[in-house]
Structure formats: C-alpha cells, structure tokens
Amino acid sequence: MIGRILGAGLFALTRFLVGGHARWQGSAPDPSQRLYFANHASHLDTIILMACLPVSLRATTHPVAAADYWGTSALKRFIALKVLNAVLIERSGGPDPLAPLRDVLSRGHSLILFPEGTRRAEALPGPFKSGIYRLAKDFPEVELVPVYLSNLARAYPKGAILPAPISCSARFGAPIALLPEEERDAFLARAQAAVTGLAERSPA
Amino acid sequence: MNQTMVILIGGVLALLVLASGVGFVLSRRVDSEAGRATVENLNQRIKAWWVMIAVFAVAFLVGKTVTIVLFALTSFYSLREFLSLSPTRPEDHTSVVAAFYLFLPLQYWLIADEWQGLFAILIPVWAFLLLPLLAVLKGETEDFLHRTARIQWALMLTVYCISHAPALLILEIPGYSQNFFLLFFLIAVVQLSDVLQYVFGKLFGRHKVAPRVSPSKTVEGLVGGGFSAALVGTGLWWITPFSPWQAALMALAVVAAGFVGGLVLSAVKRSLGAKDWGTMIEGHGGALDRMDSVSFAAPVLYHLTNFYFGA
Fold first, then answer.
1. Which of A1, A67, B161, B265 pairs with B111 at a CA distance of 20 to 30 A?
2. Best CATH choice for the domain A2-201 from the list 3.40.1130.10, 3.40.50.720, 3.30.470.30, 3.40.50.1000
3. A165 touches chain B (CB under 8 A)
4. Does A15 touch chain B if contact means CB atoms closer than 8 Å?
5. Which chain A residue lies closest to B83 (C-alpha atoms)?
6. pLDDT for the residue numbered A123
7. Domain boundary assignment for chain A
8. HEC profile of chain A
9. Which tens digit of pLDDT belongs to each residue from B210-227?
10. CB-CB neighbors (< 8 A) of B84 in chain A
C-alpha cells in the first residue's frame, strides 16, 4: 500500500521534472510477454520505463536491478522491491546469476533489462553483456523490445545528488528476435544497434 | 473593478468564440492539401488558446500569489525547454541544478515578497557570478565560455525576463492600484500582436522580414498585425495608468519588443538546431514558443512604466 502511494508520487515527480513520455515508434503497449532492453544512464531510467507502461502492465513487469546497489540498505531495498517491483540479481556472478530472471519469465511476466550492466555517461549505449542472449535463447517466445532513453545522462548524471529538469523521452522500437543460427556476439551487436538506431531517429 | 473584469473577460471570450467560428468555417471550405494542414494547425492553436486563457483567467481571478506561481511554472517549463536543447555536459550539472532549484524559486519569491531591489539584481549580478564559479570548480575548461554563457542566457531569458510580467503586479504607480490590468494589457497586446501578425502574414504576406531566421515572418504581417495590436492596446488605455496617446506609445513599444524577442529566440532556436522549443502546447510548439515575445516585451513595459509613471 505504502509502496503504491510512494510509487505514484515518484512517477508524478519524475514526470514533472524530466517528462520522460513514451514514444511508441515500433511497438504498442500490449500485454504480450516481453523483455524490454534499454540503454542505462541514470537511476531515473527504471522509474521512467515503469511510468511509460499502462498501469495494468506494471504489476507483471519487473525491472532488473543490481543487488550490490539496490539491496544494500533497507530504504533502497524497499524502493526497488515494493515501489518499482524489481527483481534483484548479483552482478558479481555466482552459480547462475540469471536464475531470478528465468523465474520471472517462467511465470509469464515481463522484464526490463539494462544489458550494459551499469550506468554510462554517454548518449549511446556501450557493449551489451551476454545475459540478454541467454534469456533470448531460453525463452524464444518472449518479445525483445528495444528502448532508447534520451537525455538521461544529462538530467541525472552518475554521482549527482539532484536530478536536473531536462526533458527526456523513452522511445520503444520494433521487437527483434534471436535468429536460428545466430552467434552470441552477432546477436548482442544487433541488439545494441537496435537501441542505437532509435537514438538517431529524432532529437528529444 | 468587477465591472472592468467582466468587460475584459467578455471581450476575450468573444474573440475566442469568433476565432473558433472562423476556424470551423475554414475547415469546411478548405480543399487543397496544403490548406488543410494550415487550417488544422490553426484549429489546434485556437484550441490551445482556450486552455491557456482559461488557466490565466483562473490565476488572475484567484489573485497575486497564484498568478506568480503560474508565471514561475511558465519559467520552469521554458527553462527546461531551453536547457534541454542546449548541449550541456555532466560538469554543468551543478550550475543547471542551481538555476532550477535556487534562482528560479528565489526570483519569484522576491516578487511575492515585493523585494524589488534584489529582484532586479538577483540574476544579472548574483547568478551571473555564481554560475561560472560552480562550473569552474569542476575543472573542465573545454567550451567553458560557451557552456557558462548558455546557462546564463537561459536563466536571464526564461526566468529574469519573463518574471518582469508578474512583477508588474508589485510596481508602485501613484494614483493607480489595478496592476492586474497592466499585466492584462501586456499579455493582451503581446499575444494579439503574435496572433495578428500570423493572420496578416497568412492573408497578405509576400515579403519575408528575415528569411533565414524566421521564414514565417513577413513585412505585411509585421505591419498589419503590429499596428492592429497597438490599436487594440490604445483602446485599452482606460484600464492602464496611461492616457490614450501614452497607451498607444506603450503598446507600440510592447509590439516592437515582442517582435524582436520572437526574432532573437528564433535565431537562438535555430542555432541549437531545432524548429520548435518543445511539444507541450499542441499547434504552437513549446511553452517558450509562446513566451518568446513576452520575454522581451515584459522588461520593456516594466521599466518604461517604472521610469515614467513609477513612484
């Protein structure tokens, strides 16, 4: 309950400060099972992506967050799990760091993933880690939707305390799929290019 | 006071109804493809006018504080649009944050507090000096002057200049206390000038004033629209502290300043590689597309009135 009220407040405040409205350019906000993957520049990214989804889809969509950051204090944990509906993973490895994500997908729920693995200061995404490839291989029925988040590195750069009100947007592209014989690196490069391609289409 | 209010609101409503009527008739009679796009944009603009005027009317009726807050929000959205189009770097973050969270609220608080001395120098002096200090502490020298100047420009234009409109409310004018009507005079003349320049330009426009800076501005639009707006301003003399001929000169000054503001901001916008400042107001573009003329006209009216009529 408190989580939902806090969530509504957080979404409203983010909207007021940076906008972050959705531009559905290649896909529509459907209830089909999805893995949204986006470039990662700030802590607002998850909030903006969740706020872009219709309320009915938020309960079954889980952003992936790093346990070594979001699990470190009671408050961060509360925001991640109760407000943003996140699933935490260990970035440092372990036997199968993707296990919690497989659980979510097996339940038929959707994921929001930042395949770069960390926040970057640049406008364009860096190389993707291989997790998205393995998930795409194990769950071929899940739609892979690229998302480009514009301007967030400027609105809330790494290390900043307060976000600056600079207009941001989330552009949702057409789904991509893993091809039958496709190599890991080729797929990762193609997924990265799908996000970069959305960046070039139009300014914020 | 109340009767004046009724007349003004009635006048604005009549104008809106007339515009909507014309827009409706045009949408029925237009047959070319290009004409359809123009009329559709015209009707979007008229619809947006209904909303904007409703918002301002409510603020005016409720009173000073709400009006100041409304202008503060307008500055906020304009500043956001300006800085979103300006290429800032992570090293500029502290300056940008100071502009939004410190100087913008403070400037409008000073108006609410009627602290005119500090209101006049907060941004040209204190923000001017503090912003480069915040930037220099980051130790990044690349493009330093450009980066600092962009943020200073953004703050001057979208906060300092626009804040002179609600500051008309705290101007002390001996023998005159209906300052809300002075603000109405400013907004009415500036916005009517924009609208009428657009209308005259669409109907009779042949010669472009500044083809590279603002391709839609024409000599015919400027002259026809500018003088018509000044004429309406003159007709509003009875709500201002001015005599009819003084009101005419003031309205002309407001129209001229507004035109220059539109031109200069169009050049700024184009130098940043954009056609509109944003997408907030359908048919118009961003908030700053609507406030560009006000940002130049408000300080001009404020200071001319203060100089010739102030206490």
1. B265
2. 3.40.1130.10
3. yes
4. no
5. A166
6. 87
7. 2-201
8. CHHHHHHHHHHHHHHHHHEEEEEECCCCCCCCCEEEEECCCCCHHHHHHHHHCCHHHHCCEEEEEEHHHHCCCHHHHHHHHHHCCCEEECCCCCCCCCHHHHHHHHCCCEEEECCCCCCCCCCCCCCCCCHHHHHHHHCCCCEEEEEEEECHHHHCCCCCCCCCCCCEEEEECCCECCCCCCCHHHHHHHHHHHHHHHHHHCCC
9. 888 888 899 999 999 999
10. 151, 166-167, 204
